[in-house]
Write a structure and sequence with these properties.
174 residues; AhpD-like; single chain; mainly alpha
Length: 174
């Protein structure tokens, strides 16, 4: 039994749909590659701040993808944790005086990921969906579509993001 299956078994009955959705969205056969599927799931678990979910997903991912995917997923979530706060503030305040200022925040991994640039952007998009930054979601969605991914792939990534976020919540229920 996989680490995520063992963890999903702990999800309480009222959240049974989340358990079933985990099996569905993490299984092969969708529009995403294994690297995309696992990278999105890990980035979202990190963004949702559920360590047990992170550990289980990383353990299972290592059976299917290389360490660069795991590293990029963690990096994408961490950078989005920073950027989502910064850009959401600028978006909500809507003052040109803030928008005209440079961020001056390091985000080199965005331009030099360990694996695929488009996949890294997909991980960033999914993490931004979990964290809730409209500006970042629009920006990363545009980049991944311009990079060759389809709207179906984006949709599948966001389904994973939603399910991982739901699992993070369900796993906190006593």
């Amino acid at each position: 039994m996989s680490a995520i299956d063992l963890l999903a078994a702990e999800i309480v009955e009222p959240a049974r749909d989340i358990k079933l959705n985990l099996q569905s969205v993490l299984g092969a056969g969708g529009s995403l590659t294994a690297e995309q599927r696992w990278g999105v799931a890990i980035a979202c678990a990190v963004a949702a701040r559920n360590v047990r979910l992170q550990v289980a997903l990383i353990a299972d991912a290592r059976n299917e993808v290389g360490p660069a995917v795991v590293e990029d997923a963690v990096a994408a979530a961490a950078i989005m944790g920073m950027n989502n706060v910064y850009y959401r503030f600028r978006h909500h305040i809507e003052k040109p005086s803030y928008a005209d200022r440079p961020a001056r925040l390091r985000m080199n991994r965005l331009v030099k990921p360990a694996a695929s640039k488009v996949d890294f952007e997909l991980y960033a998009l999914a993490a931004s969906a979990v964290i809730g930054c409209d500006w970042c979601m629009r920006s990363h969605e545009r980049v991944v579509v311009e990079g060759g991914l389809t709207e179906e792939q984006v949709h599948d990534a966001i389904r994973i993001a939603a399910t991982i976020n739901g699992a993070a919540i369900a796993l906190e229920v006593a």
